[in-house]
């Protein structure tokens, strides 16, 4: 089995959806998670608070410094992610499609290291 | 057996052998390595007595060498597993598994998770058996670039676990479309190359060969048949497309006696098969358009326009709309055709201003035509097409 990260690329510059739309979207993503669990490939899921609450800790000369804000100042920020396990990329991409449609944001599908190609 | 024969066998069997070995070993890179080993052995052994079935001989030899090597090197668990895989019974002579191996390889090389240039390079290398240097020459890019593309693509196939499988029924339409696009683009690059001379015959022939194989492997897919028909009917006109001094000859001015009648007959037969099936798609419709062009002494433009209307309904892209306008001009005149392309947005595409220029010239709007030709001449990267456009511009009558 291989593990894949399905990362939600959330565009923080878009206006926040209306409450009803938000609830619908949450119901859709919860449904995808439930489907993953039923299929036995769910490992982890989490939604993240916006990048305004992010702090970066950097190493240097044995000490660290802290800065306010995300590591990269881009419009798209990590909005949340799933970790799944499945046989191959085609299965992971099929979940990726479901996730993208459910949350309305692009999904980056990325394999975890160190699994065999069998 | 002479070296020439071995080259022929290599071109014909390389892809098939790598496809089968990839299934057995679970890794494209290893499969290629052992197939090349086996061909190196063949150079020595076949001098006295070539085997009756060279492909099967290569697969068996490659497989045996892989077992030997992996046994010796199986210090790591992974290598051991690969060696174990080789003890599974295999029947490389049977048609079914070999057919499936080839399809697996086609769908893997054209996987939508790979970049389009990587798909093309992998397809030409692994299915066509072209050397990296040949691919680089065909695309006029440095060898290192092609090499890197292939290495990176194979690494992604392995690391992301792109599966070696024929897509299921639900995914098949999308995945097949990706395969057809790759073959179409290979042909197109050969037929109207983006740089340098007009035609690169080797790419055209390779695309036709691969399309033929795909159509044979998937005889129930009308779009696969449609693509093959389209390529054959386009390829058939190639001898007439370039004049004695290497200049471009447009369809209306081509010497039809120089067209390849055999390819046209084959293409027409395939188009008739598609029509009987009646599940039209973009490639079948383009093939049908080309069938009309190659039927009889002159093109029946009313029929071409009807087919373009259907194609535009299927594929509402600006390129199709532009090509349809050429048929509109023939049926309804240059005025309506010009109106049909006025709103099109195709930045950087030289055929839009080139078509506009032709239509404006026919309407006698010479000054505008000249400006449009200038725009097209600046945009084209193909030297033959540039010469052709310059000649058309020079032929414009001066303003009154």
TrEMBL record, chain A:
InterPro entries: Dimeric_a/b-barrel, YCII. Residues 4-106 form the YCII-related domain. SUPFAM superfamilies: Dimeric alpha+beta barrel. It comes from the Bacteria. Belongs to the YciI family. This is YCII-related domain-containing protein. It comes from Nonomuraea fuscirosea.
Automatic annotation (TrEMBL), chain B:
One of its GO terms (molecular function) is sigma factor activity. The keyword Calcium does not apply. InterPro entries: DUF6596, RNA_pol_sigma-70_dom, RNA_pol_sigma70_r2, RNA_pol_sigma70_r4_t2, RNA_pol_sigma_r2, RNA_pol_sigma_r3/r4-like, TPR-like_helical_dom_sf, WH-like_DNA-bd_sf. Keywords: Sigma factor, Transcription, Transcription regulation. Residues 105-157 form the RNA polymerase sigma factor 70 region 4 type domain. Pfam families: DUF6596 (PF20239), Sigma70_r2 (PF04542), Sigma70_r4_2 (PF08281). GO terms for biological process: DNA-templated transcription initiation. Belongs to the sigma-70 factor family. ECF subfamily. This is RNA polymerase ECF family sigma subunit. It comes from Nonomuraea fuscirosea. Residues 10-74 form the RNA polymerase sigma-70 region domain.
């Amino acid at each position: 089995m291989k593990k894949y990260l399905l990362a939600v690329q959330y565009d923080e510059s878009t206006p926040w959806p209306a409450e009803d739309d938000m609830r619908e979207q949450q119901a859709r993503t919860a449904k995808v998670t439930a489907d993953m669990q039923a299929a036995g490939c769910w490992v982890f899921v989490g939604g993240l608070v916006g990048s305004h609450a992010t702090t970066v800790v950097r190493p240097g000369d044995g000490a660290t410094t802290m800065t306010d804000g995300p590591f990269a100042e881009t419009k798209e920020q990590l909005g949340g992610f799933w970790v799944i396990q499945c046989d191959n990329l085609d299965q992971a991409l099929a979940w990726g499609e479901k996730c993208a449609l459910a949350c309305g944001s692009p999904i980056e599908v990325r394999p975890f290291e160190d699994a065999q190609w069998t | 057996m002479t070296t020439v024969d071995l080259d022929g066998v290599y071109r014909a069997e390389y892809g098939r052998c790598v496809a089968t070995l990839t299934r057995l070993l679970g890794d494209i890179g290893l499969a290629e390595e052992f197939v090349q080993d086996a061909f190196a052995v063949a150079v020595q052994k076949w001098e006295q007595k070539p085997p009756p079935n060279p492909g099967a001989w290569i697969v068996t030899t490659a497989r045996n060498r892989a077992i030997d090597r992996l046994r010796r090197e199986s210090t790591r668990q992974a290598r051991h597993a690969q060696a174990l895989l080789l003890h599974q019974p295999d029947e490389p002579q049977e048609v079914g598994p070999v057919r499936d191996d080839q399809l697996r390889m086609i769908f893997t090389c054209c996987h939508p998770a790979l970049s389009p240039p990587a798909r093309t390079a992998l397809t030409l290398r692994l299915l066509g058996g072209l050397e990296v240097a040949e691919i680089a020459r065909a695309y006029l890019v440095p060898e290192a670039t092609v090499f890197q593309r292939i290495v990176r693509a194979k690494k992604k196939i392995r690391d992301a676990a792109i599966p070696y499988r024929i897509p299921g029924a639900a995914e098949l339409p999308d995945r097949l479309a990706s395969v057809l696009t790759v073959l179409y683009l290979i042909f197109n690059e050969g037929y109207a190359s983006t740089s340098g001379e007009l035609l690169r015959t080797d790419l055209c022939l390779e695309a036709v060969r691969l399309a033929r194989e795909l159509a044979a492997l998937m005889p129930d897919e009308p779009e696969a048949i449609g693509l093959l028909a389209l390529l054959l009917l386009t390829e058939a006109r190639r001898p007439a497309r370039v004049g004695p001094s290497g200049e471009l000859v447009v369809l209306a001015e081509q010497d039809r006696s120089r067209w390849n009648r055999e390819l046209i007959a084959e293409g027409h037969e395939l188009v008739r098969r598609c029509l009987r099936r009646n599940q039209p798609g973009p490639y079948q419709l383009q093939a049908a358009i080309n069938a009309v062009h190659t039927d009889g002494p002159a093109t029946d433009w009313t029929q071409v326009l009807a087919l373009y209307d259907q194609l535009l309904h299927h594929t509402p892209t600006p390129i199709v709309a532009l090509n349809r306008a050429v048929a509109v001009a023939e049926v309804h005149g240059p005025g309506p055709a010009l109106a049909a392309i006025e709103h099109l947005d195709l930045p950087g595409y030289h055929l839009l201003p080139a078509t506009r220029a032709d239509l404006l010239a026919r309407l006698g709007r010479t000054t505008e035509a000249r400006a449009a030709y200038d725009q097209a001449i600046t945009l084209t990267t193909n030297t033959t097409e540039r010469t052709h456009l310059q000649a058309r511009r020079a032929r414009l009558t001066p303003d009154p």
